[in-house]
Amino acid sequence: MRNVDTIAAISTAVGEGGIAVIRVSGPDAVREAKKFFRSRTDIMEADSHTVHYGHIVDPADGEVIEEILLTIMRGPRSFTAEDVVELSTHGGVVAVKRVLELLLREGAIRIAEPGEFTKRAFLNGRIDLTQAEAVIDLIRSKSDRAFSVAMKQAEGALSKKVKALRHQLIELLAHIEVNIDYPEHDVAEMTSNYIQTRCEESCSIIDGLLKTAGEGKILREGIVTAIVGRPNVGKSSLLNALVQENKAIVTDIPGTTRDVIEEYISLGGIPLRLLDTAGIRETSDVVEQIGVQRSRTALEEADLILLVLNLNEALHDDDRLLMKQLEGRPVIVLLNKTDLPPVLNEDELYAIVSKESVVRLSVLQESGLDQLEHAISRMFFGGELESGDLTYVSNVRHITLLGHARQALVDAIEATEAGIPIDIVQIDVRNAWEQLGEMIGDSVSESLIDQIFSQFCLGK
Length: 460
Fold this sequence. Notes:
Elements: E1 6-10, E2 19-25, H1 29-34, E3 37-38, E4 50-57, E5 64-73, E6 84-90, H2 93-105, E7 109-111, H3 116-123, H4 129-140, H5 144-154, H6 157-181, H7 188-210, H8 213-221, E8 223-228, H9 235-243, E9 261-267, E10 270-276, H10 286-301, E11 304-310, H11 317-325, E12 331-336, H12 346-350, E13 358-360, H13 369-381, H14 396-417, H15 422-440, H16 446-453
Parallel strand pairs: 1-7, 8-10, 8-11, 11-12, 12-13
Antiparallel strand pairs: 1-2, 2-6, 3-4, 4-5, 5-6, 9-10
Function: Exhibits a very high intrinsic GTPase hydrolysis rate. Involved in the addition of a carboxymethylaminomethyl (cmnm) group at the wobble position (U34) of certain tRNAs, forming tRNA-cmnm(5)s(2)U34.
Subcellular location: Cytoplasm
Keywords: Cytoplasm, GTP-binding, Hydrolase, Magnesium, Metal-binding, Nucleotide-binding, Potassium, tRNA processing
């Protein structure tokens, strides 16, 4: 699918910076840029993937608008597989805005829609849909590990596995078609065994991909982590230690934190969305009551709860009540203030929670944070993260479609075992093939494509 118009947008973040980049893509990208670009080089004759120094000039009055570097990438050797021109201007809002307005003024170039450059790369066949969606994950990555997983998907690691799986299924469909067309040569038992074996092999491959779904989703979206506990046990100090910045106000006065403070961190390659909550206790302070209620809401939404207890104090009734309320939830109990003489009765604590869920630390001395990292890794990943060559499935759409494909294959196996004619079994196998095709974009509706690319930022 080729596009007939030329689009442009600012591809760098708005604000002050060393440079800003305007991307132009489409059949008239180079010709339209030539109208405004003054240089010793005729860019119409310039080679692809070359950079040229010059100025942007308003042709109406000859005013020099900006000093730029212009990069030419001719299709199909470009991100969109079309002719692409990138204009590198001085950073800042005014300079890049003036250049973009000049490009759009005559109407031959229009402003790009969100994600339209990546959408064109997909429609023009340079990338498939899983690779396009990986671009969003690259932009939104919150840890090195998440970025590496997204990069592998952008390079086509997941696509290759799905395409290989579809190739197996199309061979199976071809085998079934032959037996339907030439039933006199069909050995029913042999065909039945062949279909079951191939479907089971495909199910095994899908199971291997789905096995990574939980970890992949965590790496993609992060673990929503609520830091809870009574007032003044060190919750905000823990947040500051993990973030390595004084994001939360810390005082000796109980009830200082009145609202939920949110921060993203990467702990050992695991992205965490930390929620520092107000101390949970009974209080007559109206403002603090609102903070406590918001803390309870954060508790309900959390994937992981870090319950902070003060090792320098005996267990309080509020501590016991909190632990009771958190039964059955993923909780790591943090015994804080190990730098002070211990007072808390640990035997009583271990009668309520398992010893394996307890981590001893001193936020003041920043000791024990590595044990916290190991505890989180053990809880969510069974120990260490998988090796770097593993392909993770992290996108909810991908997980859903893989599940549907697997179910279709299971239906085909059960139908074969029940002696149902193979022309009916063929429907289930083809359904699995189509579900995988929707995953990579071979068979997908226009509305779904629009929905996916509308999540992108402008200029990507």
